[in-house]
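Consider the tokenized backbone below.
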């Protein structure tokens, strides 16, 4: 009889109990959940950063056109959306050009360019302005 009980004891020592398997699976699931959350947060941050970079780059290029123009842009307010095939698709823009006098006797024309876009339920904006000679 002792021989049979020794063999059973050896079999039990070689395997894992159900409780040990459940504990290890729980630890694995918690670790995978943490990794998934980190990955999804990284994707959201990457998308947000990419959109902000696109907005900054586009606004600076538009203002550079106003700065390098041979004549000052006319005083106006305009806005619109980009076409679906445009690289800025999903963004809206507003341009506000006005004359201003920052100091008495000094007149300049302010060109303000604003980009707006949605990410989920939030709306983000980027504003940039430049001052040019009104003549």
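A designed sequence for it:
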């Amino acid at each position: 009889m002792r021989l049979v009980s020794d063999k059973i004891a050896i079999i039990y020592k070689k395997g894992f109990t159900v409780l040990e398997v459940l504990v290890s699976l729980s630890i694995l699931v918690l670790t995978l959940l943490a990794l998934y959350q980190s990955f999804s947060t990284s994707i959201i941050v990457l998308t947000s950063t990419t959109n902000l970079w696109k907005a900054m780059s586009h606004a600076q290029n538009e203002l550079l056109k106003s700065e390098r123009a041979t004549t000052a842009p006319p005083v106006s307010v305009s806005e619109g959306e980009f076409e679906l095939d445009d690289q800025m698709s999903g963004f809206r823009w507003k341009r506000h050009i006005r004359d201003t006098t920052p100091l008495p006797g000094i007149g300049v024309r302010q060109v303000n360019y604003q980009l707006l876009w949605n990410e989920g339920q939030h709306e983000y904006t980027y504003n940039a302005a430049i001052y040019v000679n009104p003549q």
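The longest helix spans residues 18-68.
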